[in-house]
Amino acid sequence: MPSVCVAYKKCGGCQYTGVPYPEQLEMKQKNEEALLGRFGRVERILGMRYPCFYRNKVTAAFGKDKKGNIICGTYQEGTHYIVQVEKCLIEDEKCQEIIRTIKSLLKGFKMEPFNEDTGKGLLRHVLVRRGIKTGEIMVVLVLGTHIFPSGNNFVKELIKRHPEISTVVVNINERKTSMVLGEREKISYGKGYITDELCGCRFRISPSSFYQINPAQTEVLYNKAVEFAGLTGKESVIDAYCGIGTIGMVAAKHAKNVIGVELNYAAVRDARINAKENKIENIEFFRGDAGDFMMKMAAGKEKADVVFMDPPRAGSTEEFLTAVKTLGPKKVVYVSCNPATLARDLEFITKNGYEVKKIQPVDMFPFTDHCETVVLLTAKEKKPFEKKTYDKKGFDKKPQSRKTDYRKKR
After folding, report:
1. Cys staple from 33: which of 37, 123, 181, 259, with CB 3.0 to 4.6 Å?
2. How confident is the model at residue 407 (pLDDT cuts 50, 70, 90)?
3. Choice among 5, 88, 242, 337 that is catalytic
C-alpha cells in the first residue's frame, strides 16, 4: 500500500502521509477519546480495508506557472496557490486520468486557464464524479465566462478519449468567489447527472448535490446510524440536512414515515426523484431550514420519534439544537465530520434534556486528520410530577404504613 505522496509537503491536504494506516487509526481514536470521552465510552474506530484512491469526487484548479505553462492540481491549504499534482493517493484514479486528459487538450483548443487576479481566461476548475457501483462518470467544466469557443468540439474530443464518461456539464462562475461552482449550468453531453448505489438504494447525483466521497465507508456509517436509531417500523423520523436523501431513504425501510429537510434546491429535487425511482412511498422532502421546520412542527403539536442530523464541518447552530429540544424527539442520531464541533454541540444537547448513549468513530478520510462520528442521544426520562394533597391540619394525605403514621394519637 503506497503511503508517501511527493506533493504532500506543499499540498497540506493529507496530514498523515507516511504514517502506517494502523497508526493513523490509533491517532484518530485518541483524538476522539480526548474530545468526546467525557460524554461516554468511545467505541473502537472502524477503518478501511484498503485506504487509498477512495475519493469518488475530484476537483482540480487550473492556472499557469511562472514560465507560462498550464498547470492543474489542488490549492495549497489556506491559499489559492495551485500545487501541481500528477497522482494523488486518495483520489479516484479514473477521475485523475480524465483531469490529466483535459489539461493536455487545452493548448490544442487554445483554451486559457482563468486568472483570478485579472479576471481573464476561461477554465477555472474541473470537477469529476464517479459512481463506484454504477461506473457512471460526470465531468463538470467550470468556466469564468459564458462564452465557450469550440466548446462542442472540445467535449466531443474528451468523450472520444474517454467514452466511459456519462455526462458533461458546463458550469458558469463569473463571480469573485472561493466557491467552485456557479449558479448557472448547461448540459453539453448526457443527462446532466449520474447515479450510484448505496445501502441497497439508487441515488441521482447532480453537480451541486452533496454525496459522501467515500462510498465504502459511507455504507458503514449509514448502517451504523440506522442501527443506533433502533427503528421498529412504528417511528416518525426527520432527516435534517438531508441532501439527496441518503440517510432518510435508508431509514425509511425501517420506519413508519420519514421527512427530509434541505436548503439546496438541486438536492431536494434529486431526493424526490430518488424516492420515486426507489419506490419508497413513506418519505417526503421539503426545501427549507430544518430548524425552522421543526419549530413549526412543535408549534403545530406535531411529533417526531427520531431526528437524524448530518451538518457540515462547522457543526450545527444553537437555533437548530434549540429546535430539536423544542420538538423533543425520543432519539437524536448525530452524524458528524468534525469531532471538535461535535463536542461543542453535545455540550449544548446534554444540558438540554438528552444524554449520550453510544459514540462510534468511522474513518471516512484515511491519510487526513478528519474523522466521521455517529452519536446516539436519548431523551432523559422526566420524573412524574406528584401533586400532594393535605388535610385540614396540614398533613400529607398520602397513605402511609401504620409504622410510619405519626399523625395517630398515642
Report:
1. 37
2. very low
3. 337
